[in-house]
Amino acid sequence: MKGYDVKQEVTDKFSLRGRVFHRIREDILSGKYKDNEELKEVAIGEELGVSRTPVREAFRQLELEGLIQIIPNKGAYVTGITVKDVKDIYMIRSLLEGLCAKWATHSITKEQLEELEEIVYLTEFHASRGNSEQITELDNRFHEILYEACNSKMLEHQLRDFHDYVLRVRRKTLSKYKRSTQSNKEHKEILTAIRNKDEKKAEEAANRHVLNAYENMVKNGLYEAYAGEETGNERGRTD
Amino acid sequence: MKGYDVKQEVTDKFSLRGRVFHRIREDILSGKYKDNEELKEVAIGEELGVSRTPVREAFRQLELEGLIQIIPNKGAYVTGITVKDVKDIYMIRSLLEGLCAKWATHSITKEQLEELEEIVYLTEFHASRGNSEQITELDNRFHEILYEACNSKMLEHQLRDFHDYVLRVRRKTLSKYKRSTQSNKEHKEILTAIRNKDEKKAEEAANRHVLNAYENMVKNGLYEAYAGEETGNERGRTD
DNA sequence: TCTCGTACAATTGTATACAATTATACGAGA
DNA sequence: TCTCGTATAATTGTATACAATTGTACGAGA
C-alpha cells in the first residue's frame, strides 16, 4: 500500500498535471495571488505553458482543498490562507498528530521504530552544526514515518494535507537553532513513549509538540508572512 | 461567507460538473464500483451521458478525497472505504467535533443557539412519531450549525468532508428509534454546555456523541454494508 | 440626463481531435 | 513450445473547437 503511494507522489512532481497543480498551489500559498483575486484559466495556462484543460483540473483540486472557490459560469477566486487559518490548522494538527502517535504506539513496525531513532540521532548531529536544510528534511521524515506507522489511510491522508499546508511557514520556524533542538527533544519524547507502548504519553507528547511549534512560530513573529491577509471575518475568538 | 457557500453547494447539485462528481462519488460509496476496480473515462462518461472532460475533472477531485487513486498514464482505481476506514473516521471525527463544540462555545451567535434549541425541540417531536426522514434532516442541520458556529473555515471544511463520507452509513443508524432519542439527548447535552459557555464539557459531550454513534452502529451490525471490503492490509490494532 | 435593452466581448463549460503512453495479440525465430 | 519483438488496439494526456453563460459598452427612447 505504501509502495505506490510514494511512487505516485514522485511521478506527480514530474507529470504535467502534478506540476500545474503544485505550481498554482504554491503561488496561492506564497501570496502571489492575492485574496479574492480571480484566476483566469487562459492567463494561468499561458503562464505555465499549457492549455486550459490541465489548469481546470488543477482548479477542481484546489477548490476541494479550499484554496480557491469556483462559482459556476463565473470564475475561480482565491480563498487564500489567513493568520487564523494557520492557527486553526495547528490546533487541529495538534489533536490529529496526537491520535497518530497514539495509534502508532500499537501498529508501528520494528523498522519504523529504528528509522525514527536514527532520525533523532542524526538531527542531534545536524542541529549541533546548525544545518537547517538537513534538519528540515529529517523533521519531515520523522512525521512522515509516524503518519505511515499509525496504520490509518484516513488519518495519514489528513495529516499529510495539513503538513503540506503549513510547510512554507514551518520551514522558516525550524531554521532557528533553538527550536530545532527543542523540537528534537520533543521528538525523542514521542519516540520514547511509543517504544514503551505508552499510548497516553505518546498522544500528549505529540499534542504538545505541535502546540509548541505553533507557540514558537508566533513568538518569532513568523506570522508576518501573512500580514494583511486578514479578511475581517473574524468574530474575535482568542483562546 | 456562509452565503455563497450554500449557494455553491446548491448550484453544484444541478450543474453538470457537480452532478458527475457526486454521482461517481455515490457509486463508489454505495459499492457499485468495487475495490481496486479500474474506472474508464469513456465508459463512465457514456453512462452519465457526458464526455471525458467532466469525468476527468471529477476524477481529480475524487483522487484528492482519497476515493480513487490515479496512476498517470494508466488509470483510475477505486480505493473504496473499508470497515477500518469507517472506524478511523469516527475516531477522528470524535476529536474534531469536540474541538468544533469547544470553539463554538466562544463564537456561536444568538441566532445559531436559538436554531439549535429549535432543532432539539423538533427532533423530540419527530422522534416520538418515529419519523426518520425528518430526524435525519434535523440531525444533519444540528451538526451543520455547529460547523458554522465554530467560526473556523478549516475545521468546518474538514468536518463537512467526513460528515459526507459516512452519511450513507449514518442515515441507516439514525433510523433506529432508540438511537435517535439517545442521540437527541446527547445533542441537548452539547447545547447546554455551549449555552453555559463550558468549553470543556461541550468538547467532551461532542466527543462522546460521535463515539456513541459509532458504538451504536457497530452494535446494530451496520458494518455489514461493507462486508468483504477488508483488504487484509491491517496489522491488528484493536483499541 | 437617466434607464433600459441590445449587441458584442470575455470567460467558462463541454465535446472532440490529436498525441503519447501502455496493454495486448500475434508471429518469427530459437 | 517458448520467448521476444513488433504491430495494433485501448486508454490516458493535452490541445483546440464550439456552445453557453456572463459582463460590458453603447445607443435609443423617455
Structure notes:
- Two copies of one chain form a homodimer.
- Chain A is mainly α.
- Chain A has eleven helices and three strands; from the N terminus they run ααβααββααααααα.
- Chain A has helices at 2-14, 16-29, 41-48, 52-65, 83-107, 110-128, 132-149, 153-165, 167-174, 177-195, 199-219, and strands at 38-39, 68-71, 75-78.
- Chain A has a three-stranded antiparallel sheet with strand order 1-3-2.
- In chain A, a hairpin with a 3-residue loop joins strand 2 and strand 3 (75-78).
- In chain A, helix 7 (132-149) runs parallel beside helix 10 (177-195).
- Chain A is elongated, with a radius of gyration of 19 Å.
- The model of chain A is unreliable at 1-13 and 225-239 (pLDDT under 50).
- The structure holds a DNA duplex (30 and 30 nucleotides).
